[in-house]
Design brief:
Layout: E1 7-12, H1 19-32, E2 39-45, H2 50-57, E3 62-66, H3 83-88, E4 93-96, H4 99-104, H5 109-121, E5 125-130, H6 134-138, H7 142-157, E6 166-169, H8 183-198, E7 209-213, H9 221-225, E8 232-235, H10 242-253
Parallel strand pairs: 1-2, 1-8, 2-3, 3-4, 4-5, 5-6, 6-7, 7-8
Helix pairs in contact: 1-2, 1-10, 5-7, 7-8
The structure holds 1,3-dihydroxyacetonephosphate.
Residues 12, 98, 170, 175-176, 213-216, 234-238 line the site of 1,3-dihydroxyacetonephosphate.
Amino acid sequence: MNKVSKKVVVGNLKMNGSLDFNEKHFNQIKIALKDVNTIDIGICVSYPYLFQAQMIFQDSNISWGSQNVAKDEKGPFTGEVSVAMLTDFNSKYAIVGHSERSTAYCESDENIATKFSIVKSKSMTPLLCVGETLIEREAGIMERVVANQIETIRKKYGTNVFKNSIIAYEPIWAIGSDLAASPEQADHMCNFIRNLIHEDKNNSIDDLKIIYGGSVNSKNALQLCGLESVDGALIGRGSLNAEEFIKICQIVNSL
Ligand code: 13P
């Protein structure tokens, strides 16, 4: 089974930041991590700050991206932002299917699948979030839930669409909760996702990274990202504090 070489750490700033805050935050991260070169690093910002992220990070080893994208290419979709608009700012990543969107904005697995493929069509890297609720975990159906989320995409676009992509296993109960998944839980689910994608023997999927998200911090990053099955982390709160984010990146870089 193909294993990726470089781990990846992506910050999801969610609906946080301002021009002033970002200016300091991005520069602090950029300077501190300038020699970190054995991992990929990304920061996903709110749309209005893509230009600022591009200006600050364009000459650095840090990539940037968005936290969502429209499922349509263009047209009468008030308030939406197309993938072509994201590429205007040289965005590398687009998060799709984050549970904070699928829950609060009723985003369906079908729409998430379309978004995933539209991001791929512009050679950007989709960062697909999958994961179960606490009730689903307690019912022991987390594998089925995650498999359904992934299979909706595979049925529509085939296994090949997962090449050069990132899937983040983000159990919903671990997000914003200070209760990260245990290394055993993260290992089990990341392996489950990897086996599911690779069970299609007709396609070899290169450079699919499977990462973990949900209450990652500098105290648990080594245990979680040190697992062979975990190719990195998607960081929420830990990416809002520059020192903490820098520490997490350095830890993953040292692995
Ligand atoms: P926290 O790291 O704040 O738990 O958020 C995780 C997350 O939702 C990343 O997308």
